[in-house]
Amino acid sequence: MGESIIEQMDALHAQCAECTKCGLSGTRRNVVFGEGNPESPLMIIGEGPGQNEDATGRPFVGRAGALLDEALAACRISRKHIFIGNVIKCRACITENGRTRNRPPATDEIVTCTPWLEKQIEIMKPLVILCLGAPSAKFVIKKEFKMTQERGIFYPTRYAKYAIAALHPAYILRQMGQTYDGGKSLLIADIEAARKKVVEVKKEPKLDLF
Ligand code: URA
Fold first, then answer.
1. Most buried in the list 2, 58, 82, 192, measured by CB within 10 Å?
2. Structural domain tally of the chain?
3. Ligand 1 centre distance from Cα of residue 4 (Å)
4. This prediction's pTM
């Protein structure tokens, strides 16, 4: 008998934790491999770790993570039901005048890192992928993905039968104002759409029985 999905993911995690394929390995504190249930039909893919994630080794544990948890809870989803990963596994940051801040991942960092994500997807075989933010949607759905026009729509992809993109919680936090929710209701609607799609697909009769 082959290894279980959990064993395969654990083995990949151990390898990934030692990765030195790009310069981010020199500045990271922890590799943020991703966590949750690798047997879940739903995989959420963010952009990459920030300061809190780098410090803890866990995805989405800062303010953006709190917003994501709130949106998941609104759809009656808890982290143990799903797997949450990222396009890149180490924090991309820049230090200026003694201050370190996050920066978007560079193309070469994405190219170097995404074989890890591809292996995670290969092990999980999720039915539905929910991409948080443009870098994730550009990787999973299509290079020229436009978040404002194309979020909330299901696409067939090579990684999952259905993929959908939502606004990144960190972006929503930056947009939030006294009279505007920053797009939080859209995030909840897109998570709910992903949840419903999983339920719907699970009910589809299986034609590939053999
Ligand atoms: N933002 C992301 O895209 N991923 C994390 O893990 C945390 C913040």
1. 82
2. 1
3. 27
4. 0.96
